[in-house]
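S1.2 Input.
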Amino acid sequence: MLPGMKSRSHNRNMVVQHPREVEISLNGIRRRVAVKSNWTLLRLIRNSLGCKSVKEVCGIGECGACTVIKDGRAVSSCIELAILCQDSTILTAEGLTDGENLHPLQDSFVKEGGFQCGFCTPGMILMAKALLDETPNPTLDEIKEYMSGNLCRCTGYWQIIESIQNAVHQKNSKRIHYHHQRNSKT
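S1.3 Output.
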């Protein structure tokens, strides 16, 4: 060893990562999981908690396949550190269904052909949910802009856009029907 150099053995403790407990609400269920400081939210959700709808494709937050809703906002779980998600509420595609009933967006994607191979569909649906939570009646341009971060190699995007528009239309039709029924009883 050259004079003035420190032995690498002094730095070994810095390399060891001791897991820390993180508590999150995943699809309505409180979970406590030991994570390492370099784990992503995607690794926590997919590998430790078994939500297989969340997929890693690009690993840099550019494709949208790993989209989840964290505390009401769509995020790329492949670049979100799990350790920073303490007390967060996370929603994945598995959490959208109500027992045997599909979420209206899931149903619309099926009916309108918004999925082809299905690989990107969970991320697409969660991004669309975030859009509709933020903007209940989006314009075509708002849908295109909001969904532009989610990539699909199969559909050409029109079926995805039509699926979102159909879900909005169905929601508005039910609201009008409910409002009409309610007013006609008085």
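S1.4 Remarks. Strands lie at 20-26, 29-35, 67-70, 73-76, 89-91.
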